[in-house]
């Protein structure tokens, strides 16, 4: 965005440290087929549409590498670092760092005058009952990397998101009351136990069949008050076909 570019130019001009945090490191992205209008999330860029095999496709991916190419155009020749693994981050010469969650687990001796949370909405777009909690935690962790007068910029298409606003204000009490109320209403932990059974195998049809056979047995043996969900194909990419069964036991 234009505002982000302006913030980075100020960092270069004042020779301070800046961090761009991206909650994604893989080459995965979104594909759109202009022929059959198929939209899908894929692990790597395909040559053809997986649905109709058309070559007329559009692929969009934002990761640390593609982001770094954009930042180079804005901030060149200012030093640019990619933090791709757990490492010791020293307070050496000023730079613009681009990092994923590795930045939270590194030995961090560096503070930033500017931290930009790139595409914060990517956390809540994942089907996960703890997504809002992860969003809140990420914002709090990023704030801990700021200098005393540092600035945190959160890029979002939903600025009215209560979790973002509560985290920005350090209002944990409001976040907790809202979250615990929703969990009680939907019987999520700590008001229930969630157990995930993961089935993997080389042949998708066979794993699917075994998963359905297992859930049928579970339906005959567990208490009627216990809820069974699935089997579902895993939403995360895996080298092997994977199906999940969720057992939900209300406390």
Task: Describe the fold and architecture.
The protein is 34% helix and 28% strand. The chain has 251 residues and is α/β, with parallel strands linked by helices. The protein has a five-stranded parallel sheet, sandwiched between helices. Strand 2 and strand 3 form a beta hairpin. Helix 5 packs parallel to helix 6. The relative contact order is 0.11.
Short description:
With 251 residues, the chain is of the alpha/beta class.
Describe the secondary structure blueprint for this structure.
Layout: H1 2-14, E1 18-22, E2 29-33, E3 39-42, E4 57-60, H2 64-75, E5 80-83, E6 88-89, E7 96-99, H3 102-105, E8 107-108, E9 112-118, H4 121-124, H5 131-143, E10 146-154, H6 162-168, H7 172-186, E11 192-200, H8 204-221, E12 227-233, E13 242-250
Parallel strand pairs: 1-7, 1-9, 5-7, 6-8, 9-10
Antiparallel strand pairs: 2-3, 2-4, 11-13, 12-13
Features:
single chain; 251 residues; alpha/beta; five-stranded parallel β-sheet; three-stranded antiparallel β-sheet; globular
